[in-house]
Write a structure and sequence with these properties.
This protein has 7 helices and 10 strands.
């Protein structure tokens, strides 16, 4: 789940969330960018409470954990209560290190210096007429701002998502495998009949059909029906 988007849905400021959880707004901003490796359990619970979400939406936003994994978590939590404080701290330290390694691998972000980073761009995605994603367009680029947590990066082709995304802009995407995980009006990478688009998705009331909406009003919405080959490849990190 995109924590920043959820906060804005509830009309909360960074200060509102920080005051409730008991941290500064800069810490909340780091959490929204995916830096949760050192986030304490009580903070996770408080953040989930004010955002009215499940704590798992913070710990495992992509729901990558299997049922077996959830069973393991329950066993670990149950056994943690039986350990001494010293041993509990050792378990927490180990899990924190494991999470840092996982996030580092996931991001594929390399810091050159304090303000310069290199990222891998998978390819291009159309903001207009549709363009297929391809590994053949893979490139490594340098950016001046630290990228958010993401699974892959893409370059936008076209102007249909102006003013949010301009032609040539790099966007960051989290993979998604289940359409039910996509919320109404999120910005997504959609594959429709062999073409890939970056668009805002708008579902009908029963989610049986949807439209792909451009933010540039010069472009008409794209209707998606049951006859189309359609899937969501990812959600854009904003």
């Amino acid at each position: 789940m995109d924590l920043k988007e959820r906060r804005k849905e509830l009309n909360l400021t960074l200060e509102d969330v920080g005051n409730f959880v008991g941290v500064g707004k800069s810490t909340v901003r780091k959490w929204e960018n995916g830096d949760i490796a050192n986030m304490k359990r009580d903070k996770i619970v408080s953040l989930a409470k004010i955002l009215k979400i499940d704590p798992l939406d913070i710990i495992d936003p992509a729901r990558e954990l299997t049922d077996d994994s959830n069973s393991y978590i329950k066993d670990v939590v149950s056994n943690m209560h039986k350990l001494s404080i010293n041993r509990q701290q050792k378990v927490k330290s180990y899990t924190d290190n494991q999470l840092k390694e996982q996030l580092s691998s996931k991001n594929k972000i390399h810091s050159i210096n304090e303000n310069t980073y290199t990222i891998n761009v998978l390819g291009a995605v159309s903001a207009g007429t549709g363009e297929w994603l391809t590994d053949e367009q893979h490139e490594e680029i340098t950016v001046n701002n630290e990228p958010p947590m993401h699974d892959f990066a893409l370059r936008v082709n076209g102007d249909s998502m102006i003013p949010l995304f301009s032609d040539g802009q790099i966007i960051y995407v989290n993979k998604i495998n289940d359409l039910d995980m996509v919320r109404n009006e999120q910005i997504v990478i959609a594959e429709l009949n062999g073409d890939a688009f970056v668009k805002k998705i708008v579902f009908d009331n029963n989610r049986k059909s949807c439209k792909l909406i451009s933010l540039n009003k010069e472009y008409k919405p794209i209707d998606v029906t049951s006859d189309d080959e359609f899937k969501i490849s990812g959600v854009v990190v904003i």
